[in-house]
């Protein structure tokens, strides 16, 4: 969805409510490790002060992520506060202001970026996920294998995480 900023900049006192629902197929398509399970909702508002647009709201939805240790998918509910400042004029002093070089703001893209930034660096199904057996590949959260190194040394597990970050 695009927001036409002309609408807002013409009348400075306007505060426009935004309520949208983005279908799973229309967002986060690039990343195969992230599945969107349900519509992503955005509820918020946009208003202008001086020459800056303020876009505030809440993002909610449900993703499925892939655990970096055991490679199983797990549910990841979204509940993100979004606060963006945008401007049609470049601002060198404040790098938190996003420069918009058209009169339409791409809301999907902003929401997508906010979601990506909110995701944990290391995606784990649970803090104490035991991961996969190094030898037979069994998921050690669910089964015990007979491999001698079935119980991965916690230090090794840490090392493994280092190499399998994304
Ligand atoms: Zn896991
Ligand atoms: Zn094993």
In short:
The chain is α+β, with helices and mostly antiparallel strands. The chain is built from three helices and eight strands; from the N terminus they run E-H-E-E-E-E-E-E-E-H-H. It folds into two domains: 2-118, no CATH class; 130-166, no CATH class.
Structural notes for this entry:
This protein is an alpha+beta fold. It folds into two domains: 2-118, no CATH class; 130-166, no CATH class. 17% of the residues lie in helices and 36% in strands. The protein has helices at 5-10, 107-118, 154-163, and strands spanning 2-4, 15-22, 34-36, 40-49, 52-66, 73-87, 97-99, 104-106. The strands form two sheets. Strands 2, 3, 4, 5, 6 and 7 form a six-stranded mixed β-sheet that branches. Strands 1-8 form a two-stranded antiparallel sheet. A hairpin with a 2-residue loop joins strand 4 and strand 5 (52-66). The protein starts with a strand and ends with a helix. The structure holds zinc ion (2 copies). Residues 133, 135-136, 138, 145, 147, 150 line the site of one zinc ion.
């Amino acid at each position: 969805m695009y927001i036409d900023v002309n609408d807002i900049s013409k009348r400075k006192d306007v505060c426009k409510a935004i309520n949208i629902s983005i279908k799973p197929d229309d967002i986060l398509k690039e990343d195969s490790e992230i599945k969107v399970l349900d519509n992503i909702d955005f509820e918020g508002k946009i208003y202008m002060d001086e020459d800056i647009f303020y876009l505030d709201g809440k993002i909610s939805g449900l993703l499925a992520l892939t655990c970096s240790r055991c490679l199983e998918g797990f549910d990841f509910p979204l509940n993100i506060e979004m606060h963006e400042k945008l401007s049609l004029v470049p601002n060198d002093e404040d790098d938190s202001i996003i420069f918009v070089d058209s009169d339409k703001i791409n809301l999907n893209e902003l929401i997508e970026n906010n979601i990506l930034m909110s995701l944990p660096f290391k995606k784990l199904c649970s803090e104490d996920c035991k991961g996969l057996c190094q030898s037979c590949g069994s998921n050690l959260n669910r089964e015990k294998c007979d491999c001698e190194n079935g119980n991965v040394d916690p230090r090794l597990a840490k090392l493994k995480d280092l190499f399998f970050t994304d």
